[in-house]
């Protein structure tokens, strides 16, 4: 499907994405012929890679293209606000909202799609530590892929290490990177567990996430109390019931409650 070049005709000058286009001048020609999202999408499809809402596509776009993408999103958001019949030309509160939201999506709340994984240094398990360690609570911020409204909650990690370890702050960074995409919680939990497992191949891995979904509290059934808990237990935590119990006892000491 060909979508016309995102070039808002009647946008407030203060809100005109063209103002910042000098930064992407080398992409000007491509943008005139084809929206940058289409260029990137064609590239992903040619590589046979998925681009679901919770997939990371960072390796398919350059920094320059990411900037161009924000401008395209801004222009399209502006037409959503126009269709919502909001006078963004004269309303001082919404005049720059299209730009703000485009930037927020790409650089902040969905950065886990458009930016590569943070650098994670791993070290040898020099003392051959063979005991469980747990970490938490880790603050979880995400958005549900059904309504694009926030998911907020907490997560806990349990590791029985093998021969590699990573710095503890890296668990927070990995959770933040994976969660910063539109998600459903079940898949998010699996993705975090897979990412940690691929990095350090622990003998045991446990990951618990407990979160509240604004699509259930702010709208829809409007139930502010319900939370969803997912737990992933792998390796020794799955095969050894005592180890699994120890993990849950430890994270209860770290503030985890089932209700
Ligand atoms: N399994 C699962 N469901 C979720 C998650 N986040 C949101 N949902 C639910 O996804 C469902 C989407 O249902 P639909 O019937 O397509 O959407 P809807 O008509 O807006 O549904 P209501 O929310 O019931 O008003 C809703 O019940 C949401 O509560 C999640 O992380 N996991």
Automatic annotation (TrEMBL):
* Disordered as annotated region, ranges: 1-21
Per the record's keyword annotation, is Hydrolase included, yes or no? yes
What EC numbers are recorded for this enzyme? 3.5.4.16
GO biological process per UniProt: one-carbon metabolic process; tetrahydrobiopterin biosynthetic process; tetrahydrofolate biosynthetic process
What is a single cellular component term in the Gene Ontology annotation?
cytoplasm
The pathway this protein participates in, as annotated, is: Cofactor biosynthesis; 7,8-dihydroneopterin triphosphate biosynthesis; 7,8-dihydroneopterin triphosphate from GTP: step 1/1
Write the protein's name. Answer: GTP cyclohydrolase I
The gene for this chain is: folE
């Amino acid at each position: 499907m060909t979508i016309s070049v995102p070039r808002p005709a009647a946008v407030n000058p203060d809100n005109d994405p063209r103002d910042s286009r000098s930064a992407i001048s080398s992409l000007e020609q491509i943008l005139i012929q084809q929206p940058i999202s289409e260029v990137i999408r064609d590239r992903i499809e040619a590589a046979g890679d998925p681009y679901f809402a919770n997939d990371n596509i960072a390796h398919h776009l350059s920094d320059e293209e990411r900037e161009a993408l924000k401008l395209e999103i801004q222009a399209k958001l502006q037409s959503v606000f126009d269709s919502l019949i909001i006078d963004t030309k004269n309303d001082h509160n919404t005049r720059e909202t299209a730009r703000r939201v485009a930037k927020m999506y790409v650089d902040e709340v969905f950065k886990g799609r458009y930016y590569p994984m943070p650098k994670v240094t791993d070290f040898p398990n020099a003392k051959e530590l063979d005991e469980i360690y747990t970490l938490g609570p880790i603050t979880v911020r995400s958005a549900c892929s059904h309504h694009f409204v926030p998911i907020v909650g907490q997560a806990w990690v349990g590791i029985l290490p093998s021969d590699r370890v990573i710095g503890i702050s890296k668990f927070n960074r990995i959770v933040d990177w994976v969660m910063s995409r539109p998600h459903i919680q079940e898949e998010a939990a699996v993705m975090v567990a897979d990412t940690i497992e691929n990095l350090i191949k622990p003998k045991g891995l446990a990951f618990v996430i407990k979160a509240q979904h604004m699509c259930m509290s702010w709208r829809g059934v409007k139930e502010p109390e319900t939370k969803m808990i997912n737990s992933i237990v792998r390796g020794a935590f799955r095969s050894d019931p005592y180890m699994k119990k120890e993990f849950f006892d430890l994270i209860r000491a770290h503030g985890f409650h089932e209700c």
